[in-house]
Amino acid sequence: MATQYVTCPRCSAQNSSLNTTCMTCGSQLPIAPMPMQQMPNYGGAKPAGADKKILAGVLGIILGGLGIHKFVLGYQQEGVILLSVYLISIVVAFVTCGIGTPLIFVPTVIGIIEGIIYLTKSDEEFVQTYIVNKKPWF
After folding, report:
1. What does the pLDDT look like over 78-93, one tens digit per residue?
2. Which residue stretches of the chain are H helix?
3. Would the CA dihedral through 40, 41, 42, 46 be positive or negative?
4. Host domain of residue 9
5. What is the pLDDT of residue 33?
6. Closest CA to 14 of 124, 134, 138
7. CA distance linking residue 77 with residue 18, whole number of Å
8. Are 23 and 56 members of one domain?
């Protein structure tokens, strides 16, 4: 069964037919569901901020533990946290003569997961989640 959508009369956002108010603007939705309409893409232009998606995704996969992908997206605090955890885990690995080496994988795996998530999202989802809503982790 196809999902039914209701178009908001105020902002034209598509909402599930189960909603009574618009998830975007909060206005009352009409009762009758309408088929989802394709948003026009004028000239194939990408939304502002979508250009960071590929760079952040690739850096997350390749250099994830260093947190460089966080700096690309403008998340300085989160980038410093990842970089600090990575450097501290390297120091612990040296001090413990290699016993603490698995700690290095924690920030690295976080970066890889985030890089994959960035690259699998559409440009619109990426911009909405990480540029507009500023979701810093996963």
Report:
1. 999 999 999 999 999 9
2. 52-63, 68-72, 76-95, 105-120, 123-126
3. positive
4. 1-30
5. 46
6. 124
7. 38
8. no
Q: Which of 66, 63, 50 is nearest to 119 (CA)?
A: 50
Cα–Cα dist 46/24, whole Å = 21
How many CA atoms does the CB half-sphere of 95 hold within 13 Å? 7
Residue 39 in any domain: the answer is no
What's the number of domains the chain is made of? 2
DSSP state at residue 135: -
Q: What is the pLDDT of residue 22?
A: 86
Query: Is residue 110 a contact partner of residue 89, using CB atoms and an 8 Å limit?
Result: no
Question: For residue 94, what are its two tokens?
Answer: 């040296």
> What pLDDT score does 45 carry?
64
The segments of the chain whose pLDDT lies below 50 read: 1, 33-34, 36-37
